[in-house]
């Protein structure tokens, strides 16, 4: 399923900027994602599964949330589920409980490897390459770091 689209990005004389979208891996696997075929699928998962790699063109683990932040969300989510809160509500409440948004934004601002990865993607967009950020969560139900990542990346254009 993965495709190599780097060679199809715009030439130097083309002034068109690429588009930036996001989706989740299950939508790609089941043909539910509305992503143009020329779009490079960029995974943004710190520790992807082997089947995740098969669904994307590349993965940029530096843009995944730090392990400690993921662990904090998981611990809070598990606690909320033990109290009888459903999966989606527990996930979203755990985000608020651990301050996920602020912590992830700070990570993107302060981690050198994340900054370099953001700069690289921003340059590719400016050069005309269209990108889709991909991870696991369906944002119709659960919050996902790629929504924050997309906002940060858009602000760098």
Residue-averaged pLDDT = 90
The fraction of residues in strands falls at: 5-15%
Domain count: 1
Instruction: Output the structural class.
Output: alpha/beta
Specify the number of helices. 7
Which spans have pLDDT < 50 for at least 5 consecutive residues?
1-13
Principal-axes shape call: globular
Order of helices and strands: EHEHEHHHHEH
End-to-end separation: 29 Å
User: Share of helix among residues?
Assistant: 40-55%
Main pleated sheet: 4 strands, parallel
- Number of beta-strand segments: 4
Give the C-alpha Rg.
Answer: 16 Å
> How are the strands ordered across the major sheet?
1-4-2-3
How would you describe the overall organization of this protein?
The protein is globular. The protein has one domain. It is of the alpha/beta class. The N terminus is likely disordered. The longest helix has 16 residues. Strands 1-4-2-3 form a 4-stranded parallel β-sheet. The two termini are 29 Å apart. Helix content is 48%, strand content 10%. It is built from 7 helices and 4 strands; from the N terminus they run E-H-E-H-E-H-H-H-H-E-H. This is DUF488 domain-containing protein. InterPro entries: DUF488-N3a (IPR054495). Pfam families: DUF488-N3a.
Kindly summarize this structure in a few lines.
By secondary structure, this protein is α/β, with parallel strands linked by helices. Helices cover 48% and strands 10% of the residues.
């Amino acid at each position: 399923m993965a495709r190599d689209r780097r060679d199809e990005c715009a030439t130097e004389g083309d002034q068109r900027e690429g588009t930036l979208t996001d989706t989740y891996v299950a939508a790609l696997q089941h043909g539910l994602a509305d992503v143009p075929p020329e779009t490079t699928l960029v995974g943004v998962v710190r520790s992807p599964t082997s089947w995740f790699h098969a669904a994307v063109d590349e993965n940029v683990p530096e843009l995944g949330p730090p392990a400690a932040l993921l662990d904090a969300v998981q611990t809070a989510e598990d606690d909320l589920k033990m109290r009888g809160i459903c999966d989606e509500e527990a996930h979203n409440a755990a985000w608020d409980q651990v301050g996920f948004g602020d912590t992830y934004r700070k990570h993107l601002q302060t981690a050198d490897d994340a900054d370099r990865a953001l700069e690289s993607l921003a340059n590719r967009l400016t050069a005309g390459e269209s990108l889709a950020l991909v991870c696991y969560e369906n944002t119709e139900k659960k919050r996902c770091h790629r929504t924050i990542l997309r906002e940060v990346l858009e602000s760098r254009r």
